[in-house]
Specification:
The complex is a heterodimer of chains A (about 120) and B (about 120). With about 120 residues, chain A is mainly beta. Helices cover about 0% and strands about 55% of the residues of chain A. In chain A, the strands form 3 sheets. In chain A, strands 2, 5, 6, 10, 11 and 12 form a 6-stranded mixed sheet that branches. A 4-stranded antiparallel sheet of chain A has the order 3-9-8-7, with no helix packed on it. The mean pLDDT of chain A is about 90. Helix content of chain B is about 0%, strand content about 50%. In chain B, the strands form 2 sheets. In chain B, strands 2, 4, 5, 6, 9, 10 and 11 form a 7-stranded mixed sheet that branches. In chain B, strand 4 and strand 5 form a beta hairpin. The radius of gyration of chain B is 13 Å and the shape is globular. The N and C termini of chain B lie far apart (about 30 Å). In chain B, about 35% of the residues are buried. The model of chain B has no long low-confidence stretch (mean pLDDT about 90). The chains are: A mainly beta (about 120), B mainly beta (about 120). Chains A and B meet through strand 6, strand 10 and strand 11 of A and strand 4, strand 5, strand 9 and strand 10 of B.
């Protein structure tokens, strides 16, 4: 069975601070995909990034960066110079190849960015 | 806008009632997934349909059922509703049933169900 753990439940930072959201996953499959989704107060789920298990290259997209480390089964997300608009719940999710591609989500991290 | 539509946006009903949530996938997507987001359980996979057939089941209660129609829209039926069924129900769609690098799931805006 797959499992995603987001140990942090709530994080509060002041605008312009950097913040890292942690994600640890468990799976016995060798081929899998990891995701981050953002859920702003409006409620919709916004896709941020997808990473497959064979690609450990870190990725940077503007103020967002992701650090994937298979050795520690972690896929952490860093927001640089946070902004108030980054306030949201962030979910890490895992999907394995196979008969279906359901997403297994972590519990989510509520990020509050104060002006 | 993900291209996935869900109706209604909000639904308020009483315990013991039955409701139907509707989802229209993105054009060209054959697979539909239903997820439930509740305060205590978080975001959970309920069920998946692919081209009209049930493909996978998750933590879906027996009081809940779903189907996918020939035009590929899907409905989630919730019956004998309980207070604990209050949640945000998301539908997602993807091109195929199995994962591939290009088979991303796109989520609809969700239906917020309140059971009083």
């Amino acid at each position: 069975a797959q499992k995603v753990t987001q140990a942090q439940t709530e994080i509060s930072v002041v605008e312009k601070e950097d913040v890292t959201l942690d994600c640890v996953y468990e799976t016995r499959d060798t081929t899998y995909y990891l995701f981050w989704y953002k859920q702003p107060p409006s409620g919709e789920l916004v896709f941020l990034i997808r990473r497959n298990s064979f690609d450990e290259q870190n990725e940077i997209s503007g103020r967002y960066s992701w650090n994937f480390q298979k050795s520690t089964s972690s896929f952490n997300f860093t927001i640089t110079a946070s902004q108030v608009v980054d306030s949201a719940v962030y979910f890490c999710a895992l999907s394995i190849t196979g008969a279906n591609s359901k997403l297994t989500f972590g519990k989510g991290i509520t990020l509050s960015v104060r002006p | 806008d993900s291209g996935v539509t869900q109706t209604p946006k909000h639904l308020i009903t009483a315990t013991g009632q039955r409701v139907t949530l509707r989802c229209s996938p993105r054009s060209g997507d054959l697979s539909v997934y239903w997820y439930q987001q509740s305060l205590d359980q978080g975001l959970q996979f309920l069920i998946q349909y692919y081209n009209g057939e049930e493909r996978a089941k998750g933590n879906i209660l027996e009081r809940f059922s779903a189907q996918q129609f020939p035009d590929l829209h899907s409905e989630l039926n919730l019956s004998s509703l309980e207070l604990g069924d209050s949640a945000l129900y998301f539908c997602a769609s993807s091109r195929t049933a199995v994962w591939s690098p290009y088979n991303e799931q796109f989520f609809g805006p969700g239906t917020r169900l309140t059971v009083l």
